[in-house]
Design a protein that fits this description.
81% of the residues lie in helices and 0% in strands. The chain has helices at 3-22, 31-41, 45-58, 72-86, 90-95, 97-116, 119-127, 131-170, 173-182, 186-198, 204-215, 221-263. The radius of gyration is 25 Å and the shape is flat.
Amino acid sequence: MYLDYAIKAVIVAIICYSGTYLWGRTMADRPIVVAAFCGLLMGDLQTGLICGAVLEAIFLGVSHIGGSNLNYCMATLFTTTYCIILQDNFETVWALATAIGTLGILVETGYRFISALFTGYMDRLVAQNKQKQFCRMRFVIFFLTHPIYWAVVFFGVLLGAEAMELLLASIPAFVQSGLNISKGLFGAIGLALVLNQIWDTKICYFFFFGFVLAKYMGLPVMAVLVIAVCLALTIAFRDIQINKLVLGTSGAGASNSEEAFFNE
């Protein structure tokens, strides 16, 4: 019943997730791209775009740097596909996104362990400047590891959609109501993850300034965005002018010193 969806989910995983390891980090594995692509292939672009916007907000501050790792691509593949299949209870499915993202990073860590086994051999190829062998081994390692990810996506959709349907049907009404209310927190989760990465006491007052504009002055999001962009451009142009003045002064000083040296 869900075979067609499982195959299409794997196609998206190959292009968006595995593709970033073949032709460079294009950010095609971001939720907003993955979900839209899922919706396009599965015949429900609107649901794909909605899921992409929500999941991008949730995983906005997550990157493959440091301790913020979550496999947002797998989370997006599962949640978007489930939403398209079930066409109901979107909030409940979205609430599982971070848990699925954690599962994804466990799968990713597992197949990267296989990649690590070839590290010494790859280092020797680099040291000996054997470029062709290195490129061939890169594809060998790719096809030894990434099919594990594809298999998890395939069977997760094939077997998990029915389980998800049963799970949603068994959720009591009061729990479902709470999940519907909690959907307003999704954006806050993404913002919290972003702030965790960029928070700096030197610029934190801008956060409170935006909060006051939106909460107490009642400005719409677009107006706050325009103000933020104007402030950012003002600071950027000011810093550019300061750098030019500093460099100009340094250049003039260096030029005068050279002239004095040759005059002597």
